[in-house]
């Protein structure tokens, strides 16, 4: 590794030496290299423009209109900010959806992350069967969220689900049990939490794997040094190991934000994002997918979602750039 | 996020294509004569879009049997395009504005009329009347401009289903009056049986309850104009419906919002619930109890209105205006409404549907199907179901959440109806 890193500067200096007479800043690339650079910049630029910015801009434009998708663009009726007014005033699912998205972010940030770190630390101790546990905990990550929704339906179903059945079984034997008629997916006060548990089941495995990789990468001498200094295991972890894993922490942070903003599949499989499971992404889909084609209204929702996402993206980018500068 | 990006893209594509499609549709219609090569006959190929995936079950087998019979009878090749049911429904808009098949499976009611109005489906009035198709079906095939755009194929009623053996064992009889109905439900509760199974996790099944209560309490005409956006949702009539529903809710299975219709049907199949208001497709979810099922229509609630209306959604066929082979498509659509087509479908696979064509053979019918024929022909007014009778935007984005809200909180009728009205005003403009 070390030699590989040191090698390029050597050649770089060699090049500098040959080009020495040229003043700095007027470095000109040979035509072929310039062509390559131009191509490599324009193609991604066009892709980004065409696939990200144009559709995004299209959504913004559409959000000021009323259109059911029949006929050409000239059939769009322009209604100004009416869609936004309707969304925020007379559309009952909207505010719950915003709240649910924020709860989602907060929950995912706290519980699965802590659980993931805990699992990673435990598995890192190389106890017996740690490979098995590692696989078992990581397994849900490989499953699609749609499948996870279905799997948990088998647990959560009010009449036929495992959880209520077990409780009924316990109660029948005179053992302490929880209420047998909990409507896990249907009761709007509970179902969001039930879904968050299902999400965490998957997400914790992901976080675990990232931290596990991070822990393996921590220089063993650090631990030894801490041990020699007489630090306890807990202290060593929080004061030495955790700070060293800063890059991993950043990755986990980003993943949490991304996962909670794109939260959609699970609630969509469960009940299409209604009745306590409203999320902005699900509302967008309800309004533009299917025969319900309120393109203007749906676009207004999408724009609002884009704005909320931007807040987090800006915060994230600021942190990243500050880190870069500090380096 | 991926889904959303795709949606935005498809919107733009839809927009781009629609200009082309609308323009080319008239061109194709004009020069369709030579490419169509007459109504039918050897060598012609009709493209047939169907909303059932290959091998997805009886519904697909029936369509396939119809296509095969058509080829056999007229020597027209049928090019089948089988698409998964939900995918077909969700993409219908872009499908019709892009490069659709000539003939495709669709539904009667507002869902058909809105395409007719947008010029996406072909006027079939020159194919009507169809032998064996009576007036109520012609009515159901007619759009706002008094022309027919649809060919009915089959339908099924919504009614209260029950198990004969359970009723016999308890000495119950199908009620015909409101008093009998209430007494029956009281008795069921007394015997520890939930009177009415109920599940609304998917949002649409409870629409059936709203429909029937509205038709019983306010009449068919009011129901239809309410669906068309011509009546107020916060008026006394709609409040009356929710009010009566709130009084009936204690007789329904609790916590409907976490239960699918299949789970509710299972509870009736197991005898834990006495009755279930659903379409005849309920038999798909009751297993062995299917043979034991019978049904009755929802009893009269207001003697000045009677009990002669019900939901009986009609499935059938339309011809896409942007389809390439207009004449051949029309001819096939007409044939699909014939008794021969219905027989081919019934021989192809069993389904709890009944043929719209009165000439169709009933020899393969089960008792349930025979009774369906009886009940539906006795009805003087047939509605299509809320999500087929009204604007799809309104049904799915306003009515589903509102009805679910009502089921969670049945006491806030004023708040819920006011909210529906506000949103209806915004959508229907």
Automatic annotation (TrEMBL), chain A:
GO terms for biological process: transmembrane transport. Residues 98-316 form the ABC transmembrane type-1 domain. One of its GO terms (cellular component) is plasma membrane. It is found in: Cell membrane. The chain crosses the membrane at residues 35-56, 102-123, 135-155, 192-215, 236-258, 295-317. It is a multi-pass membrane protein. Keywords: Cell membrane, Membrane, Transmembrane, Transmembrane helix, Transport. Residues 1-28 are annotated as: Disordered. PANTHER family: BLL4140 PROTEIN. Belongs to the binding-protein-dependent transport system permease family. This is N-acetyl-D-glucosamine ABC transporter, permease protein 1. It comes from uncultured Nocardioides sp.
UniProtKB/TrEMBL annotation, chain B:
Keywords: Signal. It comes from the Bacteria. InterPro entries: Bact_solute-bd_prot1 (IPR050490). Residues 1-29 form the signal peptide. This is ABC transporter, substrate-binding protein (Cluster 1, maltose/g3p/polyamine/iron).
């Amino acid at each position: 590794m070390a030699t590989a890193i040191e090698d390029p500067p050597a050649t770089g200096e060699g090049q500098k030496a040959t080009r020495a007479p040229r003043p700095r800043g007027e470095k000109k690339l040979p035509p072929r290299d310039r062509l390559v650079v131009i191509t490599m910049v324009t193609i991604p630029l066009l892709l980004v423009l065409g696939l990200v910015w144009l559709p995004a801009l299209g959504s913004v434009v559409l959000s000021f209109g009323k259109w059911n998708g029949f006929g050409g663009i000239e059939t769009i009726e322009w209604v100004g900010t009416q869609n936004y007014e309707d969304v925020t005033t007379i559309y009952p699912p909207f505010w719950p959806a915003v709240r649910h998205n924020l709860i989602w972010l907060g929950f995912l940030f706290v519980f699965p992350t802590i659980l993931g770190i805990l699992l990673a630390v435990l598995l890192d101790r190389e106890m017996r069967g740690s490979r098995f546990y590692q696989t078992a905990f990581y397994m849900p990550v490989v499953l699609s969220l749609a499948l996870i929704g279905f799997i948990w339906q088998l647990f959560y179903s009010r009449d036929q689900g495992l959880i209520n059945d077990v409780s009924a079984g316990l109660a029948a034997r005179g053992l302490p049990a929880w209420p047998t008629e909990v409507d896990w997916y249907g009761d709007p006060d509970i179902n969001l939490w039930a879904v968050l548990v299902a999400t965490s089941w998957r997400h914790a495995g992901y976080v675990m794997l990232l931290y596990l990789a991070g822990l393996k990468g921590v220089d063993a001498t650090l631990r030894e040094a801490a041990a020699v200094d007489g630090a306890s295991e807990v202290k060593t972890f929080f004061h030495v190991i955790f700070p060293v894993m800063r890059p991993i922490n950043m990755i986990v942070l980003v993943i949490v934000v991304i996962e909670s903003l794109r939260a959609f599949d699970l609630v969509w499989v469960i009940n299409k994002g209604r009745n306590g499971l409203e999320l902005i992404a699900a509302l967008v889909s309800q309004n533009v997918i299917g025969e319900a084609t309120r393109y203007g209204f749906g676009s207004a929702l999408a724009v609002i979602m884009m704005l909320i996402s931007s807040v987090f993206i800006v915060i994230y980018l600021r942190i990243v750039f500050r880190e870069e500068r500090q380096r | 996020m991926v889904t959303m990006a795709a949606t935005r893209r498809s919107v733009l594509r839809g927009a781009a294509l629609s200009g082309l499609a609308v323009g080319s549709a008239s061109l194709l219609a004009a020069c369709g004569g030579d490419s169509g090569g007459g109504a039918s006959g050897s060598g012609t190929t009709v493209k047939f879009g169907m909303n059932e995936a290959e091998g997805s079950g009886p519904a697909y087998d029936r369509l396939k049997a119809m296509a095969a019979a058509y080829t056999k009878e007229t020597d027209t090749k049928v090019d089948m395009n089988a698409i998964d049911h939900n995918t077909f429904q969700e993409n219908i808009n872009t499908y019709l504005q892009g490069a659709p098949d000539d003939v495709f499976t669709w539904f009667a009611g507002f869902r058909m009329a809105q395409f007719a109005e947008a010029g996406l489906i072909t006027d079939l009035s020159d194919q009507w009347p169809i032998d064996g198709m009576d007036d109520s079906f012609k009515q159901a095939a007619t759009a706002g401009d008094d022309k027919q755009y649809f060919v009915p194929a089959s339908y099924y009623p919504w009614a209260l289903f029950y198990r004969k053996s359970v009723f016999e064992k308890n000495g119950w009889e199908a009620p015909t009056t409101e008093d009998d109905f209430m007494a029956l439900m009281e008795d069921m509760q007394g015997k520890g049986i939930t009177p009415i199974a109920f599940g609304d996790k998917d949002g649409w099944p409870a629409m059936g309850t709203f429909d029937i209560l509205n038709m019983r309490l306010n009449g068919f005409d009011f129901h239809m104009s309410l669906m068309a956006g011509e009546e107020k949702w916060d008026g006394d009539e709609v409040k009356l419906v929710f009010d009566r529903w709130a009084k009936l809710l204690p007789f329904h299975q609790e916590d409907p919002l976490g239960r699918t219709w299949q789970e509710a049907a299972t509870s009736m199949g197991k005898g834990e619930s006495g009755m279930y208001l659903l379409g005849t497709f309920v038999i798909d979810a009751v297993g062995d109890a299917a043979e034991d099922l019978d049904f009755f229509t929802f009893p009269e609630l207001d003697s000045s209105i009677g009990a002669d209306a019900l939901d009986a959604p009609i499935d059938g066929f339309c011809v896409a205006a942007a389809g390439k082979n207009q004449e051949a498509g029309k001819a096939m659509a007409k044939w699909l409404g014939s008794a021969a087509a219905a027989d081919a479908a019934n021989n192809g696979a069993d389904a709890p549907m009944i043929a719209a064509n009165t000439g169709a053979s009933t020899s393969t019918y089960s008792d349930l199907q025979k009774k369906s024929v009886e009940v539906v022909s006795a009805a003087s007014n047939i509605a299509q179901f809320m999500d087929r009778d009204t604007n799809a935007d309104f049904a799915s984005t306003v009515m589903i959440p509102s009805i679910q809200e009502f089921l969670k909180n049945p006491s806030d009728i004023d708040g819920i109806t006011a909210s529906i009205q506000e949103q209806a005003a915004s959508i229907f403009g």
